User: Which sequence fits this backbone?
């Protein structure tokens, strides 16, 4: 593989995005959890939950900072690495990009206020109310930026004449067919992943130090939230599959190694592919792909053979798709099991294997986010603007992409390591029990 | 007002907003590091962090706003600037990334880390220098287009007296704006120690600001005479800027009305910045992009303007709330909240 500026631009864009979405996902999901915890704390007059909200918020500031700076990076890289794309599409997607910045601005203002007014209002609910604009801001910016990505998958709202976009309808471009399923899926998975990461940290604390009442409450709260978000994620995934069958059949067919157009199509789980595109070692669920694509075994699913060879996505995305879905089911399983054990008094929900299972669910969920995005992005190759512009025609012609790539990799390694170090230090130096004692001295366990 | 004038005015307002808030932030980083070196951290640094902590994120958004808006209103700018600025732009992003995240690491995470504080302070001076490059390029003569490929003439930029005069001006202005604001903030906080240190900074950086501005004019006359002549046509804008500068320096020198002094500093840069912008037109990027040639399609332009107004209706009350809680709340400023 020759490292021309197209490949290098793709490498740099994917590195930046892969790094950014870790922080973006946390940025969208954690405010919801902070808000729930503070709400419970005020409602039940329970300092445990208030402290939970406080500590989550404190860690959140570090991840927000990294999210902000990497988000700025990808925002500028869009124009620097894909100038020809931005020259055409910039006209059509300027509105959601602009609105995303507004949402981010709104969030930034209220997050600043929230973090520095903990003890400032007599009425505790006023402080809690500040979480609402933060949640609206973070989720709305995810919504707007996702419409941009949706537009690249199912472009509409413009015509192309001599390489220029004309007859632009900004609203139609934003509300393209991919927008509803993508936004729903992005939001539910961000909430789910954040709940599982917080649950994983808590479970780890319990395993290491046996945990206090504070940790037990935290784990119950995050697990219940995770189960709800996991069901919502499953629903969003199902809607997305039906959307793909309808609008981007090549992406679904590549993910499922589905070559012949047929009714009653089988769902292929895992397996391997030989050079003749024959599937081996797979688990085959008869007729289920049709069911996934259209709620009926009679649904005809378009196969890859219908798609011109130079417009097919690579077939390795199958593994990513399967891993993403498996992790999704795992999160339902683990959170469901914990709640079952907790409610069914004969079982101990604090047993070690279960807790380790929860510890694993956090990083796994983040991996699923990465797999899902790589699947969604690579699944629309070779297009940057499906049906209009190929990736190879959009990349920059400037020299120095390789050097830029190395500079950014170094930056992300540095930020990644420091972020983890700072977060660990931050909480190790001040255990929850000590902080509880200090902030709420009257409270006794 | 035509759509393109409206568009560039909106963008220019945001860039001006960024110029002010970011200068305060960038300069504060430098002063904080200086304070640590001189062991004045107990007064100076507490004050700076009390101001910066709730607002640093907002500062960043002004910048994002500007470039997203630029791409929206003038998509051709994305093409030329995007291609040309790959390396200098990436360096600026990396500096911004280091600065933003290290601020958080230092302030919320492990306190007292001198390396974090050094990087935070040093980047505060390097970023204005690297961002001002984009402004210099817009004067023309630093890009070459052959067969549809945009090439950035690095050597030209590094040997141009004009480009260096802009760099000097950007760094000096950052320190002056920041010092003037922090003097006011220290005065409100009743922190006389810091106020005196910062007042000295303000006075120290005030003459170089005007000298550097004159240098930029000379550089511009050499580099882009057309722009220079346009600027002379609206000489009164620069005159008002100079008057505001003298008013600000006088008040700071006399230890009177530091708030009014800072408003004069803002006016000084307002007149200079808008005078510069107005005389720059009709070029956005000479000679490739003029304001008429590259403006976005009217439907999108209209949608952007509506989104902009709706956004302002949301943002202005929120910003006022932020300022009332942290900037104009005497108790908070004094560290009692």
Assistant:
């Amino acid at each position: 593989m020759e490292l021309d500026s197209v490949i290098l631009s793709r490498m740099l864009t994917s590195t930046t995005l892969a790094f950014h979405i870790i922080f973006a996902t946390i940025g969208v999901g954690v405010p919801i959890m902070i808000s729930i915890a503070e709400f419970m704390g005020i409602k039940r007059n329970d300092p445990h939950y208030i402290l939970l909200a406080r500590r989550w918020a404190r860690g959140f500031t570090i991840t927000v900072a990294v999210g902000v700076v990497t988000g700025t990076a990808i925002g500028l890289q869009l124009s620097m690495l894909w100038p020809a794309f931005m020259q055409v599409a910039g006209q059509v997607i300027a509105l959601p990009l602009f609105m995303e910045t507004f949402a981010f601005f709104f969030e930034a203002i209220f997050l600043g206020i929230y973090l520095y007014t903990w003890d400032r209002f007599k009425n505790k609910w006023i402080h809690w109310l500040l979480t609402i604009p933060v949640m609206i801001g973070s989720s709305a910016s995810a919504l707007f930026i996702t419409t941009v990505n949706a537009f690249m998958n199912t472009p509409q709202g413009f015509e192309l004449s001599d390489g220029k976009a004309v007859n632009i309808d900004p609203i139609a471009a934003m509300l393209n067919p991919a927008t509803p399923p993508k936004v729903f899926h992005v939001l539910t998975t961000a909430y789910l992943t954040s709940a599982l990461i917080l649950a994983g940290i808590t479970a780890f604390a319990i395993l290491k130090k046996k945990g206090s009442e504070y940790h037990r409450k935290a784990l119950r709260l995050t697990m219940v939230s995770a189960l709800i978000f996991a069901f919502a994620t499953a629903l969003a995934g199902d809607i997305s599959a039906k959307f793909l069958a309808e609008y981007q059949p090549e992406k679904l067919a590549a993910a499922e190694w589905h070559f012949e157009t047929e009714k009653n199509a089988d769902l292929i789980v895992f397996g391997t592919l030989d050079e003749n595109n024959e599937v081996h070692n797979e688990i085959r669920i008869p007729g289920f792909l049709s069911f996934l694509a259209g709620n009926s075994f009679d649904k005809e699913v378009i196969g890859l053979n219908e798609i011109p060879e130079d417009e097919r996505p690579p077939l390795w995305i199958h593994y990513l798709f399967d891993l993403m879905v498996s992790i999704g089911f795992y999160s339902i399983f683990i959170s469901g099991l914990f709640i079952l054990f907790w409610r069914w008094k004969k079982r101990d929900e604090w047993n070690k294997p279960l807790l380790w299972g929860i510890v694993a669910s956090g990083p796994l969920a983040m991996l699923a986010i990465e797999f899902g995005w790589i699947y969604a992005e690579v699944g629309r190759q070779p297009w940057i603007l499906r049906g209009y512009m190929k990736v190879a025609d959009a990349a920059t012609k400037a020299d120095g992409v390789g050097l830029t790539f190395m500079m950014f990799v170094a930056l992300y390694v540095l930020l990644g390591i420091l972020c983890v170090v700072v977060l660990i230090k931050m909480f190790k130096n001040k255990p929850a029990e000590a902080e509880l004692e200090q902030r709420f001295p009257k409270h006794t366990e | 007002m035509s759509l393109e004038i409206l568009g560039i005015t909106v963008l220019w307002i945001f860039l001006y907003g960024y110029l002010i808030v970011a200068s305060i932030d960038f300069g504060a980083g430098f002063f904080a590091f200086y304070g640590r070196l001189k062991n004045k951290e107990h007064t100076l640094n507490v004050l700076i962090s009390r101001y910066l902590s709730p607002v640093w994120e907002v500062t960043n958004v002004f910048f994002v706003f500007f470039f997203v808006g630029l791409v929206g209103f003038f998509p051709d700018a994305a093409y030329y600037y995007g291609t040309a600025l790959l390396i200098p732009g990436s360096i600026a992003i990396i500096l911004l990334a280091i600065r933003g995240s290290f601020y958080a690491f230092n302030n919320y995470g492990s306190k007292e880390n001198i390396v974090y504080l050094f990087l935070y302070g040093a980047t505060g001076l390097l970023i204005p220098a690297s961002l001002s490059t984009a402004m210099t390029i817009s004067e023309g003569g630093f890009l070459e287009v052959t067969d549809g490929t945009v090439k950035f003439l690095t050597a030209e930029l590094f040997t141009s007296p004009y480009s260096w005069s802009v760099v000097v001006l950007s760094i000096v202005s950052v320190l002056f704006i920041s010092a003037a604001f922090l003097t006011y903030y220290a005065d409100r906080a009743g922190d006389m120690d810091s106020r005196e240190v910062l007042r000295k900074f303000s006075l120290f950086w005030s003459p170089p600001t005007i000298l550097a501005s004159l240098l930029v004019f000379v550089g511009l006359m050499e580099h882009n005479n057309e722009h220079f002549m346009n600027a002379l046509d609206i000489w009164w804008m620069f005159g008002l800027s100079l008057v505001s500068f003298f008013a600000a320096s006088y008040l700071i020198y006399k230890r009177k009305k530091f708030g009014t002094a800072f408003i004069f500093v803002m006016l000084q840069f307002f007149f200079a910045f808008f005078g510069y912008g107005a005389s720059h037109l009709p070029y956005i990027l000479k000679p490739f992009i003029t304001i008429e040639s590259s403006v976005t399609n009217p439907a999108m332009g209209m949608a952007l303007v509506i989104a902009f107004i709706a956004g302002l209706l949301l943002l202005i009350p929120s910003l006022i709330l932020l300022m009332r809680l942290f900037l104009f709340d005497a108790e908070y400023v004094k560290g009692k909240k």
In short: The radius of gyration of chain A is 23 Å. The longest helix of chain A spans residues 5-44. The mean pLDDT of chain A is 87.
